[in-house]
Specification:
The complex is a heterodimer of chains A (168) and B (216). With 168 residues, chain A is of the alpha/beta class. Chain A is 30% helix and 29% strand. In chain A, strand 3 and strand 4 form a beta hairpin. Chain B folds into two domains: 169 residues, Flavodoxin domain (Rossmann fold), CATH 3.40.50.360; 40 residues, no CATH class. In chain B, helix 4 links the parallel strand 4 and strand 5. The chains are: A alpha/beta (168), B alpha/beta (216).
Chain lengths: 168, 216
């Protein structure tokens, strides 16, 4: 399943994606999160040490978390700020921590958290606005490492067709 | 020199590892003859005061934990509300993380340079150091062992006003652990560390295994 989380209020972006993948027979789920109540991660570590796998912040993020663990791809659509994705986009990544466990291992030559679920989710970004693209690409690749998955690339909203061609 | 210090951790001050690091860092900073004022981004009620202080001060230090390879969402939300300045202001950073190797923090460090540019300020370097996850769980003696080295960094910052010196760069420690160390630490992860995490979890009232799957 391809999960598309749109953190902007511009639903035309996800509609354009839907149009571009309509003839590909992809099992896609689009979550319009632009108006949802999604807090930042408060760093409490409860998802690792008190209520394993569950976030202590009870808000609309839980429905996203429940879908991520079934997705082979997650695409986050985000507005931008200060050369990066804005805080609403970043919160989607920060709050993903419950899919990792507290336990640690080495993957290659670096430490990683042991994953909680067997499924892995590759990650792509679609951004609306100005970013430092080289950095964003580097960041997305690093973020994917944390989820034992790989980066699907970063695309501006002018490159929806290119992004859609990577959805499968 | 007077330094505006912003603790960018989303964790409340009482449990903030970054705050414990800053406590030692500012001891050294004060010994070195500098003064400082400190604010916490976790306290939304103080955001107006932090914005005001950001406008008035020219030596700024932002201390933050690494969250998914970059800055925490809450700090991003705060920074989005700032008005960029002219080049008369310098920003330095203390970037800390749970993962121990220096390489884990380099992507976040790269963003801090971009961020400084976007805020119209001069980049005064980043003090990069991992292996800080356990500060919150340590007793005072154990905690001091981890945080005391930051005192010397505070003294250096008071003198130089940046983190560009060799001493600050060496503070990071190894970029990657050599294979032998990885094998040893990997064994610790499977044994001693696992037991320690389970003990902390039990103390916190956790009744499930730490690899429990709440969602089907």
């Amino acid at each position: 399943m391809v999960l598309i989380v749109n953190t902007t209020k511009d639903t035309s972006i996800s509609e354009e994606i839907r149009r571009n993948i309509s003839d590909k027979g992809i099992d896609a789920e689009i979550i319009e999160a632009g108006e949802m109540r999604i807090s930042h991660c408060i760093g409490c570590n409860f998802c690792w040490l008190k209520t394993p796998g569950e976030c202590s912040v009870k808000d609309d993020y839980e429905q996203i978390l429940k879908r991520i663990i079934h997705a082979n791809q997650m695409w986050v659509i985000s507005d931008t700020a200060l050369g990066f994705i804005d805080h609403k986009g970043k919160n989607i990544f920060d709050r993903i921590l419950p899919i990792a466990t507290m336990y640690l291992t080495f993957k290659g030559d670096q430490m990683r958290h042991v994953r909680r679920y067997k499924n892995t989710t590759d990650i792509g970004l679609i951004y609306k606005g100005d970013v430092e693209k080289d950095f964003l690409l580097r960041w997305n690749e690093r973020a994917a490492l944390n989820f034992h998955s790989k980066s699907l690339g970063v695309f501006s909203t002018d490159e929806i067709k290119e992004a859609a061609s990577c959805m499968c | 020199m007077h330094v505006l210090i912003i603790n960018g951790s989303p964790r409340v001050k009482k449990y903030s590892n970054t705050d414990k690091i800053l406590a030692k860092f500012t001891e050294g900073l004060t010994e070195g003859g500098s003064t400082f004022e400190q604010y916490e981004v976790s306290d939304r009620g103080s955001w107006d005061s932090i914005r005001d202080a950001f406008g008035k001060n020219t030596n700024i230090l932002i201390a933050l934990p690494l969250y998914v390879e970059c800055i925490p969402g809450l700090l991003m939300e705060f920074l989005e509300t700032l008005t960029p300045k002219n080049k008369d202001t310098s920003i330095a950073y203390i970037l800390q993380s749970g993962f121990a190797e220096g390489v884990q923090l380099r992507c976040g460090e790269a963003y801090l340079k971009i961020l400084t540019e976007k805020l119209g300020c001069n980049y005064a370097g980043t003090l990069v150091k991992g292996d800080n996850f356990s500060i919150r769980f340590f007793n005072e003696d154990q905690r001091d062992k981890v945080t005391t080295p930051y005192m010397e960094m505070g003294r250096i910052f008071a003198k130089k006003g940046d983190f560009e010196s060799e001493e600050c760069k060496k503070f990071t420690g190894p970029e990657i652990f050599p294979l032998g160390v990885r094998i040893m630490v990997g064994l610790v992860f499977k044994t001693f560390a696992k037991k320690s995490f389970k003990r902390v979890a039990a103390d916190w009232g956790c009744t499930k295994p730490l690899d429990y799957r709440p969602y089907k």
